[in-house]
Amino acid sequence: MRRKPLLLFALVALAGCGSAAPAAKSPEEVKADAAIAISAARRKAATDAKAEVMRRLDIDTIAAAGGRPMLRESYAYQGETRDPFRSVLVNVQRGPELPDLRLTAIFYDDHDPGNSLGVFRDAGNNRRYDVRPGQRIGRIYVASVTRKDVTLRLDDFGTVREQTYSLRKPEDEKP
């Protein structure tokens, strides 16, 4: 019960301490206050929008604030486009197969073995292939050319087969 008179006394004291009503503002002051409120609202909206964009794009905030130069990643493809429906196997260079080749001659250079030449004949179409060490014929790589034999390597889609062809003496051949 004692609380009610204290609250009532505090309320009367506060009401009595107040001053007269505030003085009315001039129209210029009202316009200035309105302009300040509008610019503050615009600043807040712009800051909120910028924060939302940065949150969505996950931008480097230090660079965006001007703390360091913003670096942009760029990519340029210089080649031509490949048809995604065309087989990859078509792109492999075609050439003879190892069983179809027959060694017909070797021209060996004693001074420069890298300049030696092996001559092959394709049994299927009777085409002639003159090969040097390090040269490619389709999927076949010429590994070495020696006095009596030529070593070829076939890259068969990841599996490498090596075959050595030797010259036969005419008397060793069967009729």
User: Which topology of the domain at 94-168 does CATH recognise?
Assistant: SH3 type barrels
- Beta-strand residue percentage: 15-25%
Largest sheet: 4 strands, antiparallel
Indicate the multimeric state.
single chain
Which class of secondary structure composition applies to the elements? alpha+beta
Number-wise, the strands total: 7
Poorly predicted regions: none
**CATH second-level architecture of the domain at 94-168:** Roll
Taking Cα atoms only, what radius of gyration do you get, to the nearest Å?
Answer: 46 Å
Look at the structure and give the mean pLDDT. 76
Q: What is the terminal-to-terminal distance?
A: 137 Å
Order of strands, widest sheet: 4-5-6-7
Question: How helix-rich are the residues, as a percent range?
Answer: 25-40%
Element string (H = helix, E = strand): HHHEEEEEEE
